[in-house]
Amino acid sequence: MNLSLARTDTAAPVAAAGAGVIAMSGIKKIYDTGKVRVEALKGIDLRIGTGEFVAIVGPSGSGKSTLMNLVGCLDTPSDGTYLLRGKEVAGLDKADLARIRNERVGFVFQNFNLLPQITAFENVEMPLMFGGVARKERKDRVKALLEKVGLGDRMEHRPTELSGGQMQRVAVARALAMNPDIVLADEPTGNLDTSSGGDVMSLFEELWQQGRTLIVITHDQALARRAGRVVEIRDGVIVRDTIA
Amino acid sequence: MRGAGVIWNLFLSSSRLQKKRAVLTIAAIAWGSVALLLLLAFGQGLKDQLSTANRGMGTNICVLWAAETTKPWQGMPSGRSIRFLPEDVALLQERVPLLDGAVGEFVTWGTNFTYGKKTVNAQLIGTEAAYGDLRNHVPAPGGRFFNGEDVALRRRVVFLGGELAHDLFAEADPVGKTMLISNMPYTVIGVLEKRMQMGTYGGPDKNHAVIPITTFQAQVGRKYLANIVVRAADPAMMKTAIEEIRKVIAAKDGFDPEDERALRTWDTVEGQKVMRNILLGIQMFLGIIGGLTLMIGGVGVANIMYATVKERTREIGVKMALGARASWITAPLLLEGFAYTIVGGLLGLLVAMAIIIGLKFVPTEGNEALQFLGKPTLSPAVGLISAAILGAIGLIAAYFPARRAAGIDPAQTLRYE
């Protein structure tokens, strides 16, 4: 196992829990179109510590996706405070949010969201380019990451030339590229068959063991069971928070 | 620096050409550019030709005619005739230093010009040697205008207008031949070179003949000049010069210097100014029409860019989620829109140049309309104006789609439904 990619600022996964990567309190998100007013989140208090592996579960329309957008700084809350590694995110402008997403959050999506016309290598390179990493270092990091996810021999392939499982592993490599504080995955196994889904789950577990903070939104009971903590949302509030 | 590098990388990686659409868009821009360039080039050619023609009669000159007084002056009634005498020319040259030339013209109408068995009726002018320069009487190769010696020695030499020469001598070279003017023998010393002439008084120069003033006085025996032609050293001072001329003539002949109708003038400097403004107006009009045509091409670019943004919405959302700044999304799109515009513009330039060069080989001799229109010119000014219009249209056409792209909400586009 390539330990060089593990975070070095955490001693052990569970022992560090509570150090606080995410601290949300009283978070509300209201979509107001003028005629219709939808309260998607009705006051969420959530603390996630460094090195935790959290599964967020809940039925459709419960507010999971809204919560993920807020955690990932794709959107800002209507009310409440959100500290991401001690930094308040609520009042930031678009450019600041873009920088935070680039440096602190790694996204993994259900439908992979790789750019189809460039190679796996270039896809993983993209956040590094946005982050201003020098060309030489970019090349080295991308190579190491793709080797780590087992795609060292697929670097010059385009997404269309890869299987679903391989695409998702490229996406994981991309999420790790900037060495983020959290990896945020939205139904990462949703579009995969059982076998490749299992591979991705194993990869997540491996990352967790290396000290990564993982937040996974999922319907997949198998994946949720592997997480150290399950948070269940219903109608915009947290109804259950269990540590395995 | 880093920003520029990122933008360039993004531009290269994102511009997959949608061939058919790109070809059509580039063709539309090229078409618009051809229209704009040709219209401006024709405008430039028209301007050049007209201002050449406008100067055909002479540059910075004013023609003076003596007429009748219309105001009483110092006890004398209005309605008295004013006449120019040959010595008035010398007086003007002495008293009006703003002038750098003045000549008087004696004129007879209906003079018989005979060569061999052919007789033609035309206008005969007797004047000084300086007339050749002032009135732009450039001799065709092999001939000359008469000089001071011809005038001093009262030589019987004649300078013929081109068409008059052709009427008499047909294709033969008239220079050196002897012909009759009112049954007196004259030697032809030169023929007026073919040139365009817009303004005339007493008919186009190509139809008249010019002889030394001394010869004219001896042969025809006139006392009064038909008119005087003066040239200002500085065209900007023409108005002042004319005022001074009025004062000098009024003092000599005894009329009110304010009596503008006693001395009639044709100020070609003023006329050229008006002409220049009209031509500028025509060029602007042509430019606007060309610009509008090119704008249709611009709409094409905007269209393809909107389609591109729509098609790449998810891609743009992904890039934003990965931390791309707004400018890294918009700048590659602007570059792409510009690329279409520039490629189309260059193509249009090539086609326009080919057309303009091709037109040079179309004969325009003998057709006045073609003489004025058939010389489109691609001047640096035309190039600059076209480039500016093209650039502005490209920028506007790419700006709005790019702005839409920057407004994309990543949270919306990344939903997986």
What does this structure look like?
The complex is a heterodimer of chains A (244) and B (417). Chain A is an alpha/beta fold and 244 residues long. Chain A is 32% helix and 26% strand. In chain A, the strands form two sheets. Chain A has a six-stranded mixed sheet with strand order 6-7-8-3-9-10, sandwiched between helices. In chain A, a hairpin with a 4-residue loop joins β1 and β2. The radius of gyration of chain A is 18 Å and the shape is globular. Mean pLDDT of chain A is 87; it is low at 1-18. With 417 residues, chain B is of the alpha+beta class. Chain B has two domains: 2-55 and 273-413, no CATH class; 61-268, no CATH class. Chain B is 54% helix and 16% strand. Chain B is elongated, with a radius of gyration of 33 Å. The chains are: A alpha/beta (244), B alpha+beta (417).
